[in-house]
């Protein structure tokens, strides 16, 4: 079975029990075909491109106001 991560445009050939009517030719052979929006190739946890909290965002303002009460330096 071939999975296609459409976000990263990466193809994976793995065994699976998913049933699909779609097929695709991959590496000279025809396989069942499934599209994915997220896989290890595009998920932020695996790619290391996680979003960081802005220094001037709402979390920073909260910590500035109430951090000293929660034991955090202000």
Descriptive notes:
This protein is of the alpha+beta class and 74 residues long. It has one domain. The protein contains two helices and four strands; from the N terminus they run E-E-E-E-H-H. The chain has a four-stranded mixed beta sheet, with no helix packed on it. The radius of gyration is 22 Å and the shape is rod-shaped.
Short description:
The protein is an alpha+beta fold. The chain has helices at 44-47, 58-66; strands spanning 2-5, 10-13, 23-26, 29-36.
Radius of gyration: 22 Å
State the secondary-structure class: alpha+beta
What coarse outline follows from CA principal-axis ratios? Answer: rod-shaped
Q: Percent range for helical residues?
A: 10-25%
> Strand arrangement, largest sheet?
2-1-4-3
Question: Which percent range describes the beta-strand content?
Answer: 25-35%
Show unreliable segments. Answer: none
Number of helices: 2
Kindly state the mean pLDDT as a whole number? 78
């Amino acid at each position: 079975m071939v999975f296609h991560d459409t976000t990263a445009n990466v193809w994976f050939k793995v065994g699976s029990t998913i049933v699909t009517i779609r097929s695709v030719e991959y590496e000279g052979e025809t396989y069942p075909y499934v599209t994915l929006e997220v896989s290890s190739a595009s998920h932020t946890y695996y790619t290391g491109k996680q979003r960081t909290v802005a220094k001037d965002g709402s979390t920073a303002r909260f910590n500035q106001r109430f951090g000293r009460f929660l034991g955090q330096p202000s």
